[in-house]
Design brief:
FMN, globular, TIM Barrel, 12 strands, oxidoreductase activity, acting on CH-OH group of donors, oxidoreductase, FMN binding, binds flavin mononucleotide, Aldolase_TIM, alpha/beta
């Protein structure tokens, strides 16, 4: 049993155990990957203010996200094809999140369907939707999410059109994977992953196949995704979707103060400051760098969450100290899942929780709610002097 002390340990095991096609799918950004890299290095530019001789007994990371109690303000982000990183991946991740007491978000482009995850996970989860042209399909998705008792929907706004990731094209990424001589040779070396996949029926996009018009088999899915995304999306449509759902709504993919204000105006409950983990607009600023400006713009008008680049509890603390009420992790939990299944996701959450708790203590704080700008040392022009 390997000794895991940090998220990077999980990433290394994940890289060994999962076929290259799916490792590359997760561990890449769009085009030059500048934004993907900045997401991590910008967190590192912020330092922490150490305090001593402060009573650190009775600490708590417990908090709330959109009014729901959480053991720590860290949700699992929606990640497409999670069930290809590990057999039944969405169910395993949802179970780990439920046991830990944090929200799990199911992607529209998951392998396990909404109904399947609801049946096999003990807690309500959040459901992420892409904005699609087909109103009937959107309505049915919402009905299915309601029937599955999903406690919020997350509408992703930064993927009206897909960013290009070179490796996915070169690897011929698909679900189920294309069997070329090269991919088969690579998969033969991943016996643990292969045994899991042979033992499950869940290998296709469970929310789409058999539900979207004209998509009855995996072969028709590629053309569906190219056609289905709504290039005409605007704030009126966002407002319509919020009304269509009628429950808690989180708008994901906000990276600009003006858009954050619009999100508050259309009546969303929260936003996720996010650049999709550096997978969409390469050259955009990192989420952590734009967070202060967004906080200045919306204040308490809307709850603010942040993702993109979080790999540790220190990163979570920095986001909270800059004003976010919650955070999301994408790759950090995928590494755990690909490395060790459900136990790996639990380990990822434990690592981040321990880091958050210890860092909080060494900063002289007992409660995540008290974290603030006073806990950080931020370079004077961190926001940048952009014109
Ligand atoms: C492999 C992968 C697949 C993703 N799929 C989706 C998706 O289906 N829907 C979505 O809204 N975001 C998706 N995202 C973005 C994540 O929800 C999240 O914004 C991002 O992973 C955060 O960055 P991090 O991975 O550095 O934590 C995906 C991210 C990754 C890495």
């Amino acid at each position: 049993m390997p000794v895991i002390t940090n998220i990077e340990d999980l990433r290394r095991i994940y890289e060994r155990r999962v076929p290259r096609m799916f490792y590359d799918y997760a561990e890449t950004g769009s085009w030059t990957e500048q934004t993907f890299r900045d997401n991590s290095s910008d967190f590192a530019d912020i330092r922490l203010r150490q305090r001593v001789a402060v009573d650190m007994t009775g600490r708590s990371t417990a908090s709330q996200m959109i009014g729901q109690d959480v053991a720590m303000p860290v949700a699992l982000a929606p990640v497409g094809l999670t069930g290809m990183q590990c057999a039944d991946g969405e169910i395993k991740a949802a179970r780990a999140a439920a046991a830990f007491g944090v929200p799990f978000t199911l992607s529209t482009l998951s392998i396990c369907s909404i109904e399947d995850v609801a049946e096999h996970s003990p807690a309500p989860f959040w459901f992420q939707v892409y904005t699609l042209k087909d109103d009937d399909f959107m309505r049915r998705l919402f009905e299915r999410a309601r029937a599955a008792n999903c406690s919020a929907i997350v509408i992703t706004l930064d993927l009206q059109i897909g960013g290009q990731r070179h490796k996915d094209i070169k690897n011929g990424l698909s679900a189920p994977p294309k069997l070329t001589a090269k991919s088969v040779a690579n998969m033969m070396t991943k016996w643990r992953w292969g045994m899991g996949m042979l033992g499950t029926k869940r290998r296709f996009f469970g929310n789409v196949i058999g539900h979207a018009k004209g998509v009855s088999d995996p072969g028709s899915l590629t053309s569906w995704t190219q056609e289905a995304f709504d290039h005409a999306l605007d704030w009126d449509r966002v407002r319509q979707l919020i009304e269509m759902w009628g429950g808690k709504v989180i708008l994901k993919g906000i990276l600009d103060a003006e858009d954050a204000k619009m999100a508050a105006r259309v009546g969303a409950d929260a936003i996720v400051v996010s650049n999709h983990g550096g997978r969409q607009l390469d050259g955009a600023l990192s989420s952590i760098r734009v967070l202060p400006e967004i906080m200045d713009a919306v204040g308490d008008d809307i709850e603010v969450h942040l993702d993109s680049g979080i790999r540790s509890g220190q990163d979570v603390l920095k986001a909270l100290a800059l004003g976010a009420k919650g955070t999301m992790i994408g790759r950090a939990f995928v590494y755990g899942l690909g490395a060790m299944g459900q136990q790996g996701v639990t380990t990822a959450l434990e690592v981040i929780h321990k880091e958050l708790d210890t860092t909080m203590a060494l900063c002289g704080e007992k409660n995540v709610a008290n974290l603030g700008r006073h806990n950080l040392l931020v370079p004077r022009n961190f926001g940048g002097d952009w014109v």
